[in-house]
Amino acid sequence: MTIVPVHPFVFLDHNATTPLRPAVLSAMVDVLGEPGNPSSVHAQGRAARRRVETARRQVAQALGVPASGEIVFTSGGTEANHLALRGLKIDGRVLRSAIEHDSVRAALPDAVEIPVTVDGIVDLAALERLLADGAALVSVMAANNETGALQPIAEIVRLAHAAGALVHCDAIQILGKAPFDMAALGLDLATVSAHKLGGPQGMAALALAPRLPLRALTTGGGQEKGYRAGTENVAGIVGFGLAIEAAVAELEPYGRLAGLRDRLAARLVGIDPAAVVFGAAASRVANTLCIAMPGVKAETQVMALDLAGIGVSAGSACSSGKVRISHVLTAMGIAPDLASAAIRISLGRDTTEGELDRLIEAWAALRHRTNRSAA
Amino acid sequence: MINGARVPPDAIYLDYQATTPTDPRVVDAMMPYLVQRFGNPHSTSHAFGQEAADAVERAREQVAALIGAEAREIVFTSGATESNNLAIKGAVRFLKSRRSKLVTVATEHKCVLESCRTLVAEGCELTVLPVDRDGRLDLDRLAAAIDDRTALVSVMAVNNEIGVIQDLAAIGAIARAAGALFHTDAAQAFGKVPLDVTAQKIDLMSISGHKVYAPKGIGALYVRRRPRVRLEPLFSGGGQERGLRSGTLAPALIVALGAAAEIAGRERAAEADRLGGLAASFLDRLTEALEGVAVHGNRTDRIPGNLNVGFAGVSALALMAALPDLALSVGSACTSADVEPSYVLSALGLDDATAASAVRIGFGRFTTEAELLRAAGRMIAAVAGLRSAGLRPALEAAT
């Protein structure tokens, strides 16, 4: 099989997925060649078990899972979110923010929506009012995948716990980008995914505080302490452990991306003074820029940039190729015309200034063309 | 650095029904999708995403080709456990208001039995059929157990402990005649025995990657389109996999399953001959040197890479403890830490002592003749030693 590389391609869609770290890859390839089912009692099985448990400690440590808490490995963020939200045996209303990922929205079809401010931050006064009417569970993401806006999780936990509700946090977009500590935040459940932080695709985890009433979605061999049946993806788990350890260790250098991102935003707004940056007033993860070029559909921008060899996305990638108006921007009160002109540019730890210059050039050319055809 | 327990340098892996190492050719096929900066396959608007999406569709064709299905009938999952859960819970929950009965077999994998029990808790009626002494399902009993209220019949293609192959075509015909869906857990069969969803009248088939030299963490479910089988998904969200299985697909894992399927399709017949020969000569050596060797499960209708053998008077756990360099197992991997005798062997009608003497020996693609000869010699010596020592305790024998 030959794969024709499209390089040099500038990949600026790191909130969708990230490249695998080279050290993670080589460890995974070694593990793939080993026979051994972690449930087997022979030496090969025990070796596989040791690898899984080492990675479990790495993930628990990176997340700050409370003592006697659990890490349950799953096949991805969607499964982990479903296990958390459908598996929890609770009785009462569920509240979720208006800007949650599709997998959370789908897992909680009957949830009451917590509104967000114009900057895309959960409205705490509204949350308090909703909690006053009773709730058993609150689900809010730590960082939004489209705008990068950081959410006031500590405050949300404090309010929710005071009202007797558990709190789940989809932490997929924050790990490796900004500090996160499950125990310090007082969270009950948190979801984290490997491929967003330099680990393999098809691997995620649900972190649990001790003694939560959780029921498995898939049953069978009793793996993962009965929370998730199925032979463990040993190579993927090993890769996850190594990747999250490295990502959390590199938080400080990751912060440099904020400078690149802000310079990029300023340059783009310089090209088109009518361009709008969403969540600009919010505290955001360092790598994310959500920006609209008024009058030009996001799909048109994404295609034009793709032709120029630059990968960005129109809102969230998960809608199976369909581009809809972002529910996140809609919840922020952005008019449909402007929201449909928004693209997401998400930098990675290896992104260079030169790569961003290519994006700026391509964006300027598109603005120029569309201005001309409008005139 | 990666950590792991120490595996003896001269260890011989004889547990291919628990899991297989990933074939180096499969690793090679995965590499581009691990190394290069391929994107999320659902972001088809940019070039990275498109390449990943194309690779996923090629793999879907490769998997479909091995079972006579169409590519669009293949749904990728995280493994056979998820496939079995999705097939059984998904199909029966969809049909429950009209047909609320399900039929399965005592020797099924735990995840099939557990999925059925979940449905019982939801109000369904379950029949668990026994098997004959050789592990095969009695077709008359099956026919008698099915009626017009039966939603689903779930019978595994190949048993994970005794390697026995069921008559899928006959079972499929019986289920279809009654209007029931036929699901088969083919985790141990895919790539090892011929499968054809049309000829065998299979509506749902669970497939595992790591039993056929692809990595752990990938599997598939065949879902018939004509007539269409409807399922209630276990997870929803992004709407991937025709809405049956949401979540970001892992292109590298999917490509690996496709590559493994293609290799198996090409090499299955020759590999079966080779493994059959190895198993026969291994067994010959044991029976020539030892009295009281029993083979559990049908001798002819079984996959060539499996032997389930008992040595009269020798406990399997003691034997395994005496052979730390041979990776053997009692029962399935999922239950191998249990001290109870295998429920599969009990279902064959074996008494507890006989069941407790049985070891599962699994050969595979990378097992060499030299390894088997050495393993047979080690096993013969260990059995003879344990017998002459009059069943010394396992730990003592190991030290």
The largest pleated sheet of chain B is described as: 7 strands, mixed
Q: What's the number of extended β-strand segments of chain A?
A: 12
What characterizes the major β-sheet of chain A? 7 strands, mixed
* Percentage of β-strand residues of chain B: 5-15%
The structural domain count of chain B equals: 2
> What is the helix content of chain B?
25-40%
Distance between the termini of chain B: 31 Å
Uncertain spans of chain B, ≥5 residues at pLDDT below 50? none
Give the CATH H-level superfamily of the largest domain in chain B: Type I PLP-dependent aspartate aminotransferase-like (Major domain)
Number of helices of chain B: 12
Mean pLDDT over all positions of chain A:
93
CATH topology of the largest domain in chain B: Aspartate Aminotransferase, domain 2
Our estimate of the beta-strand percent of chain A is 5-15%
Strand order of the largest sheet of chain A: 2-8-7-6-5-3-4
Description:
The complex is a heterodimer of chains A (375) and B (399). Chain A is of the alpha/beta class. Chain A is built from 14 helices and twelve strands. The longest helix of chain A is centred in the C-terminal third of the chain and has 22 residues. The N terminus of chain A is likely disordered. Chain B has two domains: 141 residues, Aspartate Aminotransferase, domain 1, CATH 3.90.1150; 240 residues, 3-Layer(aba) Sandwich (Aspartate Aminotransferase, domain 2). Helices cover 40% and strands 13% of the residues of chain B. Chain B is built from twelve helices and twelve strands. A seven-stranded mixed sheet of chain B has the order 2-8-7-6-5-3-4, sandwiched between helices. A three-stranded antiparallel sheet of chain B has the order 9-10-12. In chain B, strands 1-11 form a two-stranded parallel sheet. In chain B, helix 1 runs antiparallel to helix 7. The longest helix of chain B is centred in the C-terminal third of the chain and has 39 residues. The radius of gyration of chain B is 22 Å and the shape is globular. The mean pLDDT of chain B is 91. The interface between A and B is large, with 92 and 86 residues.
